[in-house]
Design a protein that fits this description.
With 208 residues, the protein is of the alpha+beta class. The chain is built from five helices and nine strands. It is globular, with a radius of gyration of 24 Å.
Length: 208
């Protein structure tokens, strides 16, 4: 919906419409799924998350580039709140894989400081501005992809510093319905007598 972090400096206005929050239904290997996605820091937005919970999502997708230690706890919270399976794909990138326009700007030497003037030669001398080159094999994003179950348990991952890794797990999507018998934040436990969320231009009722 909106850019986050430094993205706002480049594109300060809305970058998509609320229609992108509409869940879709599909069938995979005979299992009917309701799935939706929130991208990166959209997952920190409680109202956005609730708009997806209200649609009875049972497969929640959360791609990101956030490798902070706070990401996995967030994914576990979302899974437990929504009683959905959460799949978060996080990019794993080394410095050498960044485009040149990023790497070339990140290794510029700092401006010289503490100039001294040789009175006899009248020439300025400056300290060395040599800057060590960054390690091209350094991970600039360490990954952290994971799969979390509707009870908040981590089923696979997080996958760190593995560029070619693949996570897979067998699940029973009926666990989502079983979990909502215990806690349904957008249904029986949602205090519909006091609270109601409306999203401009979007029907957040569960898809047929």
């Amino acid at each position: 919906m909106l850019g986050t972090l430094s993205q706002i400096a480049i594109a300060p206005g809305p970058t998509s419409s609320s229609s992108t929050l509409r869940a879709i239904t599909t069938t995979i290997q005979g299992v009917k799924l309701t799935l939706a996605a929130a991208v990166c820091w959209e997952n920190y937005m409680p109202l956005l998350r609730f708009s997806l919970y209200s649609q009875n999502v049972n497969l929640y997708l959360a791609p990101t580039a956030d490798a902070r230690s706070t990401w996995l706890p967030l994914m576990r919270t979302i899974a437990f709140e929504s009683r959905a399976f959460v799949l978060s794909a996080n990019q794993c990138v080394r410095r050498k894989h960044l485009p040149e326009w990023i790497t070339s700007s990140s290794i510029r030497p700092p401006p010289p400081t503490n100039e001294t003037l040789d009175a006899e030669s009248n020439h300025a001398s400056t300290p060395s501005t040599h800057t060590p080159q960054p390690d091209p094999d350094e991970f600039v994003c360490r990954g952290g992809s994971c799969i979390v179950g509707p009870d908040g348990s981590v089923l696979a991952g997080p996958l760190w510093e593995d560029e070619d890794g693949l996570l897979s797990v067998e699940v029973d999507f009926e666990d989502c319905e079983r979990g909502r018998l215990d806690l349904d934040v957008a249904g029986s436990y949602g205090r519909g007598d006091a609270f109601r969320l409306e999203v401009e231009g979007l029907d957040i009722s569960p898809p047929a």
